[in-house]
Amino acid sequence: MIKLVALDLDGTFYAGRILGVPESAWAAIERGQKAGLKFAVCTGRPQGGHGLQYAQRLQPDGPHVFNDGASICDAGGRSLHAEPVPRLKEIIAIARKYRLPFDLMGAEGGRYYEDALMPPELLTHIEITGVTARSALVEEIEETLVRLWFVVPDLSLWETVKPDLEALTEIDLAEYLSPREAIVGLIKKGVNKLSGLRWLADYYGLSLEEVAMIGDSHNDLEAIRDAGLGIAMGNAVEEIMAVADHVTGHVREDGFAQAIGHVLALNGQT
């Protein structure tokens, strides 16, 4: 029986700037809550902002996973668990050497960038999640730092820098490449949404078999594969659909509500 539903946000629960979170998704959450389900955000988004607002409505008395498992907090934003970025001084030295713009995520919801490296046009990458960022030198930040993002407009420069970062074997790189830029996340090796699910299960005294994960993208793969019930959205990438136990509809076509309906049906609570 599924007792906890963990959910990705973008492309799973949140359908984009125009649609936002469909009303059918909120109605499904209410149905699930009435049936006794617990809910938890499990997202790659930084801690805070719009993601934390969703968390407060989804489960105001429980923990939520941000930064792909590197930070876990309660619905008020108080840190419950954090996985600091290893070898951060070396990473920052590489960024400064090649003049790579970056921003850093903190375990208490802080977000930081260095003015000297951040072109104003790239601040849009920071502001989109609703988490307020401020300029600061890394050496002055007291908060535990759990994730770093590079935004590199020059793909050839990224290919030059990448081997230096890959040599730091304690970190994982997540690359999102387009013809015009590379967006790259750095996190402690072995930290991901699955490690976040395990933390949530321990918190609630559950096994992973009692946890469902709903998602659509590559960073959901391990969690969907190993959860008791893995659900892929209809708009999910093929790799996610291949490991999921169930594929629901598109996020823009009430897919999330259908996913919760599937959970309730398996629990015999239709």
UniProtKB/TrEMBL annotation:
Enzyme category, top tier: hydrolase
Enzyme nomenclature, EC number: 3.1.3.-
Keyword Hydrolase: yes
Molecular function (Gene Ontology), one example: hydrolase activity
Cross-referenced Gene3D superfamilies: 3.30.1240.10, HAD superfamily/HAD-like
Keywords: Hydrolase
Top-level taxonomic group: Bacteria
Signal sequence region: none
A Pfam match: Hydrolase_3
Record SUPFAM superfamilies: HAD-like
NCBIfam families attached to this UniProt entry: HAD-SF-IIB
Designated name of the protein: 5-amino-6-(5-phospho-D-ribitylamino)uracil phosphatase YitU
Organism (species): Meiothermus hypogaeus
Gene: yitU
